[in-house]
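Module 6 notes. Inverse folding takes a fixed backbone as the condition and produces residue identities as the prediction. Think of it as a translation problem where the source language is geometry and the target language is the twenty amino acids. Below is one complete input and output pair. Work through it position by position during the lab.
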């Protein structure tokens, strides 16, 4: 029996094979998932309908299963910061968001360290989030 909220078998399999420094990409509905998939990334589609499932729901569930040491976002070229960044900060209070331009983000997210790409039906713009898995310390 699992003690955390994450029960999706394909996501669990990808996380079980990952380790410290591996990356997980949670995408919004606009992300070019099929053309920006990293060579080592498992691809999981959770985009049931517009707005279902959303990025923050996936993040909240992943946080019950893994430690996160870094979180990166795609920053707009101009204009105000997307409101969803505040939600990411609320869910990851111990981290500062690493910001990349659009094409830098694509390069980082499709790199060899990305082990999992979860596609959501998120409709909020710039809601892509690239997580780096942290260390699980032994219990003393």
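Target side of the pair, the amino acids:
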């Amino acid at each position: 029996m699992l003690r955390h909220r994450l029960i999706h078998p394909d996501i669990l399999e990808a996380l079980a094979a990952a380790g410290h420094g591996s990356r997980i990409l949670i995408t919004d509905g606009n992300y070019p998932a099929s053309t920006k998939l990293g060579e080592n990334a498992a691809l999981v589609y959770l985009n049931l309908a517009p707005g279902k499932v959303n990025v923050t729901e996936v993040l909240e569930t992943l946080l019950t299963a893994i430690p996160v040491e870094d979180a990166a976002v795609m920053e707009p070229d101009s204009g105000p910061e997307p409101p969803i960044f505040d939600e990411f900060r609320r869910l990851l209070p111990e981290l500062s968001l690493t910001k990349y331009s659009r094409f830098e983000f694509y390069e980082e997210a499709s790199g060899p360290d990305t082990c999992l790409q979860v596609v959501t039906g998120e409709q909020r713009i710039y809601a892509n989030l690239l997580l780096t898995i942290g260390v699980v310390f032994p219990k003393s």
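Reference fact for the lab report: Residues 76 and 101 are 7 Å apart (CA to CA).
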